[in-house]
Design goal:
The protein has about 375 residues and is an alpha/beta fold. Helices cover about 40% and strands about 20% of the residues. The protein is globular, with a radius of gyration of 22 Å.
Amino acid sequence: MHLKNSKVIVIKIGSSLLVDNKQNIRRKWLSSFAKDIHKLKSKNKKIIIVSSGAIALGCKKMNYKKTNLKLDKSQAVASIGQIELMNLFSQSFSKFKLNISQILLTLDDTEERRRSINAKRTFENLFQLNFIPVVNENDTIATSEIKYGDNDRLASRVAQITNADTLILLSDVDGLFTKNPKLFKDAKLIKKINNFDKDIKNINMKGITEFGKGGMITKIEAAKICNLSGCNMIIANGLHLNPIDKIIKKNNCTLFISKISKLHARKKWIISSVSPKGEIVIDDGAKKALVNGKSLLAAGIKKVSGKFSKGDHIKILDIKRKEFARGLSSFSSEEVHKIIGCHSNEIQKILGYVSKSEVVHKDDMVEV
């Protein structure tokens, strides 16, 4: 199965997989899921979990019915359920010696460039520390997740900003069908979507949005984001025990193949960014380092012009003032002025606070 070649995998689990319709926690399922994650980790895969369930678990704790909750009460219940959710993960995962951490995100955190860069760095550092990030929509402040009850789009954005190879949406359906299988007996499971726009047009979408807790439309929207990010996506039934193992062995799911390479998608995103806010002139040594795939450090900077903030799109010019690359700055122009020509270990002393060592990280830079 395709997962063999995936280095970074994002797995989204819906609340119906954690809590059944009688509000019982599916502990056996979660333990089997943890076992699957342990297997993936033993093969050096980097795993991110995007989980729903905070409101469902909060309702269980408070003995409320989810359907009767008003928005402001939902946010309070989510706050209570968030601790229950993480305790549940911690108990199940610790049996397999898996370390977890929690990241609370809103869609704005992934769509606003500066915040998405910060989120990306946090994920990278957690991977280095050998922790599995468990991402939740920040239900205590985000209203859209509570209104639509869905994390599919958030999961696709997490896959996008972390340069994931595959996103797996574990749902209560086997995948994408030619028709709604609950209405049509002749509905067939589509195993593979090779050409996103063309293949989706051939599906009878009537009534198809109704099956699956998150709705199939949001899953198709998630697939579109992944498709443009160079990330493949799988929709699979997560209700079985050991759901990931089942995907690998049985292949009873829908696989969306992205034809765009991740590098191309990232380059396209940076190059097509809004007009650059500033320029940095670098010396020949820094240029050589950049050609060899290194990040841009303050030591190689000769001049900075324009006014830009952290995360803004900037031009990188060589000593002859010829545009050489574009990238996203890890510092504001004000900060860059202060650290021009300095070694990375001097930055903290000059600025008076801990910061990145790279002015433009190699992953946020494209040669032009």
